[in-house]
Inverse folding.
């Protein structure tokens, strides 16, 4: 049942009135109290009718909103709570409430590294305590992937704040290919997550080329307050529009990729497309399906295709087909000869 703001104000006002046992509350008194409260919140006169208050009391008494308020009539005209300690602000949570709050809590915790959730920590802790008390710490029924041991997660909030406040960074970075780390003056513009890893996207002072750094390869972060921050009006949606993953080649145009998937795996590709541009090209008599997507050719794309092994065949473009073929042949070569198991 949808509840309007005015209705919530009335419910809370009636609740507050009925908690005050030093005064007798007739319908006309509750009408006036609700009208005054609405004027205070809305800044305009709203006359609450007798019928509205009667319906509100009926609803509060019911369990439609979970209140089941013990409102009783005495002396044939006055209203009060039969339970002196009752208030609608302290009603027990239902089982459904518990489930929703628990799973919401688990999802929020996925982003606990960000300070933008710091102000909610007190609320989250209180809710957790309430849930634990009433639910006896039942196990979660929604589980989200998160690699808590991944290096660099401790930098998330610091980098987020730098982007927010437009601060130039001095980053000590060492890629897997580099023999030693190097310091880079960097203008951060975006934090991006892909495949359970986090990346920092931005540019160097002397270059307009967009660079992407994996957080797990950042060895240190300092600030460069002397260099003026260069905004680029970065639009992540358009920048990654034709990309799977995080690697974008600015000079490369998207290419049409055509691939065929066998009968067993085709339904997975139909229900979870590789990309928003995915189209079904042809359904074959053997149950296999040919698809097409319009994307950049990058490392992440190749890994996605190779992950399907023998169930997926790249038909075009020719260069990508050759690359996938070569890598599959090399992988198969590891199993041609029997070798002793070494651990």
């Amino acid at each position: 049942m949808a509840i309007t703001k005015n209705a919530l104000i009335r419910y809370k006002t009636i609740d507050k009135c009925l908690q005050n046992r030093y005064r007798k509350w007739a319908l006309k008194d509750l009408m006036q109290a609700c009208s005054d409260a609405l004027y205070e919140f809305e800044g305009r006169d709203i006359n609450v009718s007798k019928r509205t208050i009667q319906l509100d009391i009926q609803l509060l008494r019911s369990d439609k909103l979970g209140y089941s308020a013990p409102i009783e009539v005495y002396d044939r005209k006055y209203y009060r709570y039969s339970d002196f300690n009752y208030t609608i602000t302290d009603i027990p949570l239902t089982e459904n409430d518990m489930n929703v709050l628990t799973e919401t809590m688990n999802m929020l915790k996925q982003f606990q590294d960000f300070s933008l959730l710091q102000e909610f920590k007190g609320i989250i802790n209180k809710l957790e305590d309430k849930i634990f008390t009433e639910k006896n710490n039942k196990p979660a029924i929604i589980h989200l992937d998160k690699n808590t041991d991944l290096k660099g997660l401790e930098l998330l909030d610091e980098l987020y704040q730098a982007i927010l406040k437009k601060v130039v960074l001095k980053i000590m970075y060492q890629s897997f290919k580099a023999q030693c780390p190097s310091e880079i003056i960097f203008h951060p513009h975006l934090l991006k997550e892909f495949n359970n890893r986090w990346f920092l996207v931005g540019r160097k002072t002397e270059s307009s080329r967009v660079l992407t750094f994996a957080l797990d390869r950042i060895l240190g972060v300092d600030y460069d307050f002397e260099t003026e921050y260069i905004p680029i009006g970065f639009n992540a949606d358009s920048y990654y529009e034709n990309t799977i993953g995080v690697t974008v080649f600015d000079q490369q145009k998207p290419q049409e990729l055509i691939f065929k998937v066998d009968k067993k795996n085709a339904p997975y590709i139909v229900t979870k497309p590789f990309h928003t541009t995915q189209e079904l090209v042809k359904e074959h008599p053997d149950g296999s399906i040919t698809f097409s997507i319009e994307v950049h050719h990058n490392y992440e794309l190749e890994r996605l295709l190779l992950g399907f092994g023998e169930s997926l065949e790249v038909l075009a473009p020719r260069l990508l087909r050759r690359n996938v073929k070569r890598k599959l042949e090399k992988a198969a070569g590891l199993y041609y000869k029997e070798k002793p198991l070494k651990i």
